[in-house]
């Protein structure tokens, strides 16, 4: 059961997990937008990612006045849950203190939407996280990548790099998504939704 949809108190850490696939082959893929947003957030906290025994790359710091743990699973997307759950246990962060940043096929490119709980929408990374945490009650920041053109298989589409046109706006859109994460953890879900769902 979800109550209040608010992150834990200001003195408690928040875990920000960005989803993607590891390695240079996947760096610019649409599926890796979670990693790209986490890189921007790491710049904002002035930290660097380091290997951690949880099976993720970890960066700790302060963001929007809160202590945060940035988590990039070193596993492939469909096994993201193990490292995220392991990091959450290590840092003693409950599911309601977890924010997952991921790509979303069902949103227009560059659109940012926030929610708490709900289904996985066929996203393998979310499915793995929900299974490993034993709950769907965690926050999601969804970055729209649009549906594939024509009859292209969605599985192929998400593993392709952003198009030339999309790349022109990519840095601005990554900034927007990072701003949404900051607003969520500093002002709560309702304020963040009011601000970013109108764009």
Q: How is this structure best described in words?
A:
One of its GO terms (cellular component) is cytoplasm. GO terms for molecular function: peptidyl-tRNA hydrolase activity; tRNA binding. This is Peptidyl-tRNA hydrolase. The protein is an alpha/beta fold. The protein has one domain: Rossmann fold (3-Layer(aba) Sandwich), CATH 3.40.50.1470. Helix content is about 35%, strand content about 20%. The chain contains 6 helices and 7 strands. It has helices at about 35-45, 80-90, 125-135, 155-160, 165-185, 190-195, and strands at about 15-20, 50, 55-65, 65-75, 100-105, 110-115, 140-145. It has a 7-stranded mixed β-sheet, sandwiched between helices. Strand 3 (about 55-65) and strand 4 (about 65-75) form a beta hairpin. Helix 1 (about 35-45) crosses helix 5 (about 165-185), helix 2 (about 80-90) crosses helix 3 (about 125-135) and helix 5 runs antiparallel to helix 6 (about 190-195). The protein starts with 13 loop residues before the first strand and ends with a helix.
List keywords for this structure.
199 residues; alpha/beta; Rossmann fold; 7-stranded mixed beta sheet; 21% strand; EC 3.1.1.29; RNA-binding; Peptidyl-tRNA hydrolase; Pept_tRNA_hydro_CS
């Amino acid at each position: 059961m979800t109550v209040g949809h608010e992150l834990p108190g200001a003195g408690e850490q928040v875990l920000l997990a960005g989803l993607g696939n590891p390695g240079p082959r996947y760096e610019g893929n649409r599926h890796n937008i979670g990693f790209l947003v986490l890189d921007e957030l790491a710049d904002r906290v002035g930290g660097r990612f380091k290997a951690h025994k949880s099976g993720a790359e970890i960066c700790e710091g302060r963001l929007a006045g809160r202590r945060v743990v940035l988590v990039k699973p070193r596993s492939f997307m469909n096994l993201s849950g193990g490292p995220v759950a392991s990091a959450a246990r290590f840092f003693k962060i409950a599911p309601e203190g977890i924010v997952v940043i991921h790509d979303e096929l069902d949103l227009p490119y560059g659109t940012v939407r926030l929610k708490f709980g709900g289904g996985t929408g066929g996203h393998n990374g979310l499915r793995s996280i929900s299974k490993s945490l034993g709950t769907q009650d965690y926050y999601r920041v969804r970055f729209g990548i649009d549906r594939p053109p024509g009859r292209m298989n969605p599985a192929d589409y998400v593993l392709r790099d952003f198009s030339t046109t999309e790349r022109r706006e990519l840095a601005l859109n990554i900034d927007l998504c990072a701003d949404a994460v900051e607003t969520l953890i500093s002002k709560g879900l309702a304020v963040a939704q009011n601000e970013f769902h109108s764009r």
